[in-house]
Design goal:
It is a single chain. The protein has 89 residues and is mainly α. It contains three helices and no strands. Helix 2 runs antiparallel to helix 3. The protein starts with 7 loop residues before the first helix and ends in a 6-residue tail after the last helix.
């Protein structure tokens, strides 16, 4: 007979000392537009899983893909702009 036991690490995986740091929360906040755009893109794809995509579905997917790409570009530009010191020489 196999005994079922709990694993201490799994039980205490969310202890107080394991909370995200302020830097990690800031990174999540910066990436939130990308995350939300990706969720919208996934939603657009999920709608078409059980049926043949209509022209409206195809447009919705294209718009969601463009928004996701634009959010990624904006994030990269913000990160690149923040890492540059000074200005043009």
């Amino acid at each position: 007979m196999n005994h079922i036991v709990t694993v201490q690490d799994a039980v205490t995986a969310f202890a107080d000392f394991m909370e995200p740091t302020d830097a990690e929360l800031d990174a999540i906040e910066r990436e939130m537009p990308v995350i939300l755009a990706d969720v919208d893109l996934l939603d657009a794809h999920i709608v078409t899983l059980d049926r043949t995509p209509t022209e409206l579905d195809a447009r919705r997917i294209r718009r969601a893909r463009r928004r996701a790409l634009a959010a990624r570009v904006a994030l990269v530009n913000r990160v690149a702009g923040a890492s540059l010191h000074g200005g043009a020489a």
